[in-house]
Design goal:
This protein has 296 residues and is α+β, with helices and mostly antiparallel strands. Helix content is 54%, strand content 17%. It contains 13 helices and 7 strands. Helix 3 (55-73) packs parallel to helix 8 (138-145) and helix 7 crosses helix 9 (149-165).
Length: 296
């Protein structure tokens, strides 16, 4: 490795965590984010950084373009085939969080916002993520989406209105209290206590389940306390093992059956009530998660 390439590699490593956070927000998948970062390195190393004054900005531009290409490659057919597409969750232990994952969480977003980002068109998502979340100027974003600076500003503005219109909940700050509510939810489901479940759920609670192509029958959306409570009773599995975890920073669980991951479930608890439950049951994505350091 030449001295110039070695220096670029060192500087790239210094920006890797930031690039991964950008890619995760853009793609909603840790695996795809890592691939995008690797592709960014390959492109950067081939081009070389000679004459580049702001290496961090240059690398961010490259990773953003890589992510935009990946988003545009997601076909309309795939979107129509999936009633629900949840982002890949960031799973950390409930008691002793993994430092690497915690670093990503510190520069990332909750699962609820990530779900809204999944609904944005690629160009809007790029403009919003880079400007509103990473303070990239519109005149730098414009070439990435092939628009003028004014048009890029309009893209971000439309995305911002969509995000604001989603009325994202603000979770309770007390993680221990969140955990108590989540534990009570599973306890009530396992003993078949419908009334207790309804008491724990917000009247307008939303349950999203994403089974992916491997479990299409487990892909659905349920709304309302009674409907979600019934789903919880049907889905209760006495043989399953529940591993307390933090899902994108909030209380949740990883469900395993016979030692294998079956589901990752994230909860949003507001004023002691569950307002959102998001379950990833897609076998392909579950296999990619590192669950070796989970509690329980």
């Amino acid at each position: 490795m030449t001295d110039e390439r070695h220096e670029l590699a060192e500087r790239f490593e210094g920006h890797r965590a930031h690039l991964r956070a950008v890619a995760y927000r853009m793609l909603g998948s840790l695996a795809e984010a890592d691939e995008a970062v690797q592709d960014t390195w390959l492109r950067a190393s081939r081009a070389g950084a000679e004459g580049v004054e702001n290496v961090g900005g240059w690398l961010t531009t490259i990773v953003a373009r890589v992510c935009l290409n990946l988003l545009q490659a997601r076909t309309v057919r795939q979107a129509e085939a999936r009633a629900v597409r949840l982002p890949e969750p960031i799973v950390t232990p409930a008691s002793a969080p993994d430092p690497e994952a915690e670093a990503l969480l510190a520069d990332s977003v909750g699962l609820a916002l990530q779900i809204v980002l999944e609904t944005l068109p690629p160009a809007e998502r790029l403009a919003f993520v880079l400007h509103d979340m990473f303070d990239i100027p519109f005149d730098e974003i414009a070439p990435m989406v092939g628009r003028t600076s004014t048009a890029a500003r309009q893209l971000a503005s439309r995305a911002r209105r969509r995000v604001q219109g989603a009325a994202l909940p603000t979770p309770d700050a007390d993680l221990d209290r969140q955990r108590e509510v989540v534990d009570a939810f599973f306890a009530a489901a396992r003993r078949g206590d419908f009334d207790a479940l309804v008491t724990l759920l917000d009247p307008d609670v939303v349950l999203r389940s994403d089974g992916g192509e491997g479990r299409p029958t487990l892909t659905f959306v349920r709304r309302g306390a009674a409907e979600v409570a019934r789903s919880a009773l049907v889905g209760a599995m006495p043989a399953a093992v529940l591993h307390p975890a933090r899902i994108n920073g909030l209380a949740g669980v990883v469900v395993t059956l016979k030692g294998r991951p079956f589901a990752v479930m994230g909860f949003v608890v507001v004023r002691g009530k569950i307002v959102e439950i998001d379950g990833v049951l897609d076998p392909e994505r579950l296999q990619r998660l590192d669950l070796s350091r989970l509690d329980g």
